[in-house]
Write a structure and sequence with these properties.
- The complex is a heterodimer.
- Chain A is α+β, with helices and mostly antiparallel strands.
- Chain A is built from three helices and eight strands; from the N terminus they run E-E-E-E-H-E-E-E-E-H-H.
- Chain A has one domain: Roll (Thiol Ester Dehydrase, Chain A), CATH 3.10.129.
- In chain A, 19% of the residues lie in helices and 37% in strands.
- In chain A, strand 3 and strand 4 form a beta hairpin.
- The longest helix of chain A has 19 residues.
- Chain B is mostly helical.
- Chain B has a two-stranded antiparallel sheet.
- Chain B is globular and about 40 Å long.
- The model of chain B has no long low-confidence stretch (mean pLDDT 88).
- Classes of the chains: A alpha+beta, B mainly alpha.
- At the A-B interface, strand 5 of A face helix 2 of B.
Chain lengths: 166, 128
């Protein structure tokens, strides 16, 4: 089962942009193992995974989730501020380029601190995805799309985007 | 655009795609052997070249793909005469030197793709 690092899609612009949010909760046990300066800090690697899921859904939606979209390369990843329990993270992913082999995406990470109203830009994560059936010649993969599991469909359903996968 | 201008832009592309310093990007540097490019980096480079020079690159146009699926081109992991002839005709931007039947392993083709090959490729594409 896939572990989701986004809670909800809040904006979808077909073939162009997808925005998702994650609420960082102290009930998530990994935070208790990542205390820095006395504060539980969301690890940047998990923020990158959140962006990968956001951008991956966007890339997958272009071909109605028929392609097996795999994160192949982190082209750029910067983070300027820590994210802690109570904060909300916004992942804003856009397609930079896409063809039959894969896709390049550009992503911004914003943070809204607990109790606040304003969003603050805190990071940038650009990724490269591979359509593995088109790139791994001679390598056989299962017929079914193991990338976009039921978990992802739940996220689409929640956002009223279930028709994208039909 | 002059060849020097193309070279400078390719230096930037490879700096971004491979995280190498511009002074490592010499004309004779091999993308795989010298600059450490892996297969997925080629897709990254293709996307960056498209954006930088504003043209489209078809799959397999810049780097050969799926060669091993054709027995006429590859035997025992090495290029046949037909395979070399096909590559010389299709990839005029790469210098295949004096290789003959069975001299060149498929896994070594990437080593022949140099910074100069990319400059040649862009020059040919821009000339239309």
């Amino acid at each position: 089962m896939r572990w989701l690092w986004i809670d909800c899609i809040i904006k979808y612009d077909a073939d162009k942009q997808l925005v998702a949010i994650k609420n960082v909760s102290l009930s998530e046990y990994y935070l208790h193992d990542h205390i820095i300066g006395g504060k539980p800090i969301m690890p940047f690697s998990l923020m990158i995974e959140g962006m990968a899921q956001t951008a991956g859904i966007l890339v997958g939606s272009v071909n109605k989730f028929k392609e097996k979209v795999i994160l192949a390369k982190i082209a750029k990843a910067t983070l300027d501020s820590d994210v802690t329990a109570g904060d909300t993270v916004r992942f804003e992913a856009s397609i930079d380029n896409i063809d039959e082999s894969g896709a390049a995406t550009c992503g911004f990470i914003d943070r809204r601190v607990a109790g606040g109203d304003a969003w603050e830009r805190v990071g940038r994560v650009d990724l490269l995805f591979s359509h593995i059936d088109k790139n791994m010649a001679g390598t056989e993969f299962p017929e079914h799309n193991f990338v976009f599991s039921d978990n992802f469909k739940m996220i689409l359903d929640t956002a009223g985007l279930a028709s994208l996968a039909e | 655009m002059s060849r020097d201008d193309i070279f400078e832009k390719i230096q930037e592309v490879l700096d971004d795609a491979l995280g190498v310093d511009e002074d490592e990007v010499t004309p004779d540097a091999s993308l795989t052997a010298d600059l450490g490019a892996e297969s997925i980096d080629f897709l990254d480079i293709v996307f960056r070249l498209e954006k930088t020079f504003d043209f489209k690159i078809s799959q397999g146009e810049l780097f050969p793909e799926n060669l091993t699926e054709n027995e006429e081109w590859v035997a025992d992991g090495k290029l046949t005469d037909n395979g070399l002839e096909m590559l010389r005709g299709r990839m005029t931007h790469v210098d295949f030197g004096a290789y003959g039947e069975g001299d060149l392993e498929v896994s070594k083709i990437g080593d022949l793709i140099t910074v100069n090959s990319l400059v040649n490729f862009v020059e040919i594409k821009l000339a239309g």
